[in-house]
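Researcher: Go.
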Amino acid sequence: MSWIQQKIKMVASWSRVPGLQERVSVGMALTVLAIYLLPLLTYGTSLHILVYDNLDGIIPTVKILAQSGQLFADSTSVLPQMMGGLPRLSFGSEWRLVVWLYSLFPPFAAYAVHEILIHVVAFASMAYFLKSNILSPTYPYRSVMRYGIALAFALMPFWPMGSLSIPLMPLTAAILIKIRAGHASRLEWGLLMLVPFASSFVVYYFFFLLIAGVVWLRDLLIRRQWNLAFFFAIAGMVLVFLLVDYRLVHEMFFDVGYVSNRVEFIKTYIPFAQAYKIAHLTFLEGQPHSRSIHLPFILSMVIVGIMLTRVRTQLSLPLSLVLMLLLAGTFMTTFWNQVLGNFYTMPVLLVGTTVLLVAQTHSRPFLGLFLLQIVIAYWYAFWYYEGWEKIAEQFRFIEMFHFSRFNNLQPFLWYVLMAYSVSILVRKVRFATPFLVMLIAFQVAMAFNHRTFQIAVSQQAVTYENFYAVDMFKRIKAYIGLPQSQYRVVSLGIYPAVSLYNGFYTLDGYMNNYPLSYAHLFEKFTLRPDAYRYRKEHGLQNWTSKCYIPVEGKVYYDYTKNGSADRLDMDTSLMYDHGLRFVLSGYRLSAPEQYGLEFLKYFSDQESFWDVYLYAVCKEKM
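Model: Structure:
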């Protein structure tokens, strides 16, 4: 026995102590997870928080609903604070975890609890999935890998608006697998039916359950098995999702008193070369709402695992060491960037994986899932391919519903592939465990730099307290001196979410589903009455969820203090007729009198990300 083998066996002897390996693995994983989440408790509102589809949207929207007193109101009831008053239907279901958190806790506490739940549930969910799937029960270091992979999955930068949708996918998959096999417990059935209360059907689980349905149909056609338990599990989840989203279902089949703005959504179509490029980027980097940070460590492990599926026996020790050294060397160079960044990489992987899948009977689930990842990346990108345009014109629902969202399954699938790769490497490569532990440790360390909440300054994040600037907006409210419900405001250069969070009633805002008539009215507010027709004729995307007042030469995500604006595109007279009395501008206006505005006061605060120039709307100056 070599010296290396002796040392490894000596260090590994702790694994033979019953239960010790699992307790140590769980303890270490939970310690790292606690360190990851600790800033939410220690830094509080001083944390830098993701702005995109987070601070600028979901937080003030859920806060308004939770504090409106109309949680269970009729769908046609009006919540007056946002965008001149929106129907209760626009704010979605009250039977969602995130809504109840904001009902029970102050806003930041609710946000922090929600973030903690997302990551803790992700860890438990993946650990539960790996308990009975993929990793061999005879593998002596099964607990180390199980909890290591679960930890890596739990530290992904989950999109906060997605709530527990992705974190619960491993649990959902594990229970459905058990039901399909015929040995799920009542508790597991109960857990399965609770998933819809913390997840999104339209964005995530429509696609997840569609694939589950395909598996059931395959069993029926090939195995001649009806498997009613599996069928009723899928159908039961769909039913519960529809009950939770009963307001959306009601809108789809009954008259709710208005036409949704979504009917005028225009998808941007792109040429073949651009679609191909986006497919490549999606495969390598994911999509902003479903980032899995699988490059370089996870993807490289998966590719090596695929190559090893052709190896029948365990590699010799020298070959094993050479393979691990070569793989380690690739991480110290730009090897993976050069190989995976090649224009032909995806077609080669697609063809190679397909050949392996057809040529061999083992490792088929592993190869099939990797092939699915490639197909999903192509499907996501080519959903916007210009070849679809004529078909979409005939079937409007194709544009209204994002069938491209299969890509939201990719984060979960990457970590399933990671587990398969680990399973293959420990069987085919001698003493692979220490090397795999090192790779998982690198993956975990990398995840700390991708959190949606950061201690250090981030390009895509602003501190919670700086963004919402509560103290400064209290001073603005006090200066105006009127009940906030008696007047309306709009924001220039400042996200409307800021004024909404601080209790102001607005004509602007960010909402995915609201009356089309208001979208048309807002286009008149911003002097764009033919915006839909113009964008359609010129092939430009029209996504009317953001009713923002444009400021020429300025963009909301690139705001800087001490700026000025020369031109506004807004009809203040028409807006005055709809209640506008004050404008909260992040910029000093060069000629406010041209728009019927009168400067009142300048507000600034070191704790505020914004400067605010307060203007009054004067009817007599228009």
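Model: Residues 107-131 form the longest helix (25 residues).
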